[in-house]
Amino acid sequence: MKKTLIAHSPDADDVFMYYAIKFGWVDMDGVKFENIAEDIQTLNEKALNGVYEIVAISFGLYPHIREDYALLRTAVSFGEGYGPKVIKKRGVKLKRNFKVALSGEHTTNAMLFRIAYPDARVTYMNFLEIEQAVLDEKVDAGVLIHESILTYNDELEVEREMWDIWQELAGDELPLPLGGMAISRSIPLNRAIEYEATLTKAVHVARDNKYKLSEMLLERDLVRIDAPTLDKYLELYANDNSIALSELQYRAINKLFEIGYKHGFYDTEVKAQDFMIPTEYKDLRNS
C-alpha cells in the first residue's frame, strides 16, 4: 500500500477538512494517507523546494511553483467580508514606516500588505508569535491570520482589515483568496485525479458531519480554540464554498495573480484554470 503524505497547516479549518481522512471516513484504494501539520510559510517554502507531493499553500505563492505543482479545486479558504487583520496596541498611531510582523514572505496577506504599505518595515515570524510580538512592542503592528482573528487580546485593536485592502486593489466584489492545495506534477495524471476526488470527498464529508467531526477534534485537543469559536471559524474558512472552486472563486484567484504581476511579485500573469488537473483526461482515456 502506497503511503501518501498530506501537508497542511495546524489551524482549525485545515485540520477539519483533512481529518475525515485521518479518522477513516474517507479512503482511497491502495493508498494509506498520513498527515503533517506545519505553519503556512514553512509549507510555502517546502512547496518552493518540491518537498511534499500534496501540500497546502497560500494562493499568493502559486505562480512561483506553477511549473512543479498543479492547483487542486478543493480544500480552499476564502475571505468573504472578512480575512486577516492588521492589528496594533490600542491608542497607538502608526508612523508611515512602522515595523510590522507578517506570517511569511509568500503568504497572500503579505503580498497585499506590502502593496498597500510600501514604506512599512517588514519582519517575518511564525503566525503564532505575532500577537505577543505586538503586545511586547517588539513590532508596531502585525497581521493576524487563522483563529487569531477571532481571539486576539483586548489590548489590541484593528488598524485595517485585509478585506478592505483587497477590495480596493481588486476593484470588484470578489472573495479574498487565501489558502488552497497543490499537487506535484510528478504524480501520474490518473492518480492525481483520484487524489483530488478523494480530497474533495473528504471536505464534503467533513461539512456533512460538521458537528460530529468538530466534537471529535475538540475531545482530542486537535484544535487550539473552544467549541463556539471553532463553530464560528469553520463557517468562515471551511464552509460549503471550500468543497470545490466556483467560477467566482476562479475570478478572484485570477485577480490576485493579476495584481501580483502588476506590482512585480510574479514574472508572468497566470490564469488559475490553466493550471488545474485536467480531470476530463480520465474520461477520455477510458472512452
Automatic annotation (TrEMBL):
Is Glycoprotein among the key words of this record?
A: no
Q: Which UniProt keywords apply?
A: Ligase, Lyase, Menaquinone biosynthesis
- Which EC number(s) does the record attach to this protein? 4.1.99.29
Catalytic EC class: lyase
What InterPro entries does the entry give?
Menaquinone_biosynth (IPR003773), MqnD (IPR030869)
Key word Ligase present: yes
Q: Where are the active-site residues found?
A: H146
Q: Which GO terms describe its biological process?
A: menaquinone biosynthetic process
- Pathway this chain belongs to: Quinol/quinone metabolism; menaquinone biosynthesis
What domain of life does the native source organism fall in? Bacteria
Catalysed conversion reaction: cyclic dehypoxanthinylfutalosinate = 1,4-dihydroxy-6-naphthoate + dihydroxyacetone
GO molecular function terms here?
carbon-carbon lyase activity; ligase activity
Q: What's this protein's function?
A: Catalyzes the conversion of cyclic dehypoxanthine futalosine (cyclic DHFL) into 1,4-dihydroxy-6-naphthoate, a step in the biosynthesis of menaquinone (MK, vitamin K2).
PANTHER family from the UniProt entry:
1,4-DIHYDROXY-6-NAPHTOATE SYNTHASE
The entry's family comment says:
Belongs to the MqnA/MqnD family. MqnD subfamily.
Task: State the protein's name.
Answer: 1,4-dihydroxy-6-naphtoate synthase
Query: Which species does the entry assign this protein to?
Result: Sulfurimonas crateris
